Amino acid sequence: MKFYLTIFLLTATKLLLAQSPQAFIKEGNDFFAKGQLNEAVASYDKVTDEKYRYVALINKGTALFKQKKLDDAIKTYQKVSAAEAAGAALRSGAYYNTGVVYSNQKDIESSIEAYKNALRLNPSDTKARENLQKALSERKRSGGGGGADQPNPAAQSKLNKNQARQQLDRLEQKEKNTQRKVAGKKTPFGGSVGKDW
Question: Domain 14-146 sits in which CATH superfamily?
Fold first, then answer.
């Protein structure tokens, strides 16, 4: 399987770049492009401005990933995905990149959940959708179980209370939608459409 990380680039004029957050991100991106990953991480760490911090964190996570510091990369991406202030696009990108790291670690269940979270924030993300399908196929090949909606006890044990509540809320909403569909298939005379056992 081939997965690609997303790195966010910022473009700005040279006048705006002098010792600004954008300058540090550009400097980090230049180091990254040259393969000088330690220097790239150091440049991204210089960004403290809230507006640009999350872009720098995603790029830092990607540099850590390239250095094979996978756990550090995940922790860095999680800082972005957990931050409402980062915005949906960056949070989705962070979840996507987290999924890529988990896929590389062969933690298929965690990668599936990360790709789902990316798609919840950005349903039009085709890379996340493709990687989710690859991960689901991998799970099926490895005997990891059935469909995506079946609960996995190992994955559930990793959920915190908030995540468990969100999962329960999704299941309840799905049940309500099913009940509405069934109610919508009733005939005007009170009977249901289909077989009457």
Answer: Tetratricopeptide repeat domain (1.25.40.10)
